[in-house]
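Board work, copied verbatim: L-seryl-tRNA(Sec) selenium transferase
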Amino acid sequence: MTDTAADPRRLVPRTDAVLADPRLAAAAQRLGRNLVKRAVVAAQKRARRGEIPPDAVAGTALDALPATATGLRPVLNATGVLLHTNLGRAPLSAAAREALALAAGTCDVELDLTTGGRGRRGAAAIDALLAAVPGAGAAHLVNNGAAALALVAGTLAVGREIVVSRGELVEIGDSFRIPDLLTAAGARLREVGTTNRVHPGDYADAITDETAFVLKVHPSNFTITGFTRAVGLPELAALGVPVVADIGSGLLQPHPLLPGEPDAATALAQGATLVTASGDKLLGGPQAGLLLGSPGVGADLVQRIRRHPLARAMRVDKLTLAAFEATLRGPSPPTRVALDADAAGLRVRAEALAARLASAGVEAEAVDSASTVGGGGAPGVVLPSAAVALPERFAAALRRGEPAVLGHLENGRCLLDLRALPPEADDTIADAVLAAHRGL
Ligand SMILES: *Cc1c(COP(=O)(O)O)cnc(C)c1O
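↓ predict structure ↓
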């Protein structure tokens, strides 16, 4: 027979009683009652299993509550990959974050406050984009780069042909493929050339009355080297049909460190009729798809595309419009700052951080490392960087910490690469490593 009076399960407080704890009541105001109740029920279960004492239920529930009502947790990107798809690509600038907060309330996204009439949605974001690419005649924004391409194909090429090189049939990521996207939008593909080589004549031979446009896709996540040949935009532009350039990463102007990365201004100057790109890669803004048209023909096509019924299904929200405009008008976004950071400065930060950790007994050392832009662009480009090297066992502890820090493993060590992190993050990194050290 069990002694029920001594059974701790009898002493576990009731849910309502725990929820009445002022700290949990305050949390329920902020996070919602359901979320708090779930944490309480989980703590009660632990108490019934004897894992925590019955009087610790409220405190345990409180500790388990997330900082906000989202399940998303902030992660410090110490991987050395500037645009990490699993971490949400480009982090937003402070200016873009402020704009987001403003737009989160009610705002004049489609209202002209002077006249009281309807205003053109997103006009300010489009103006900012056209100011950044003066060579464009018109621009439009959609949800992402894939949407921009799908909308172009769905407007201009349903039942018609898109001429594209076999060397540019790119899988973007997570098994999504540009050729599938184009055919799903209703277009037929007319593939030309081979994986490694295509000639101007291949394109010329493929052009018929069925041709909607020639598509040039930037191979943004791989390189082909050796016996290769691609056809540039100036030659494609001479073919007499519209040329659509999917430049991928969203560089608006050439970048000196990334000579192989196409940019919107150059693509238009070289004769592209339309340019598509992403907003959250090297542009450094929120997830968005950019569509830019050359003055004249391209601008007319942008207007057609904007009025297509599917354009409404790919429309960006006010948050994106606000963050995108602020990214372009505000100071350099973090992605750009990280790209331009000089390696010597990163090394100084790594030395200081390693010295600070070593003095606290952590086995830490400053090392040279190699950063990359990531799946978002500039394949094959290595950016010299610096990192703090820790024993490998730190990796999991840092990843599970608060805030989470994601490093990368190399030769049995956990490297915390500083290129993708602003200098202000160094204190947080130090605290996170020290916390992990105490827990190991
Ligand atoms: C990233 C990329 C895309 C897809 O853009 P999303 O914004 O991810 O939808 C399309 N084309 C190229 C060349 C890319 O690099």
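The two ends are 42 Å apart (CA to CA).
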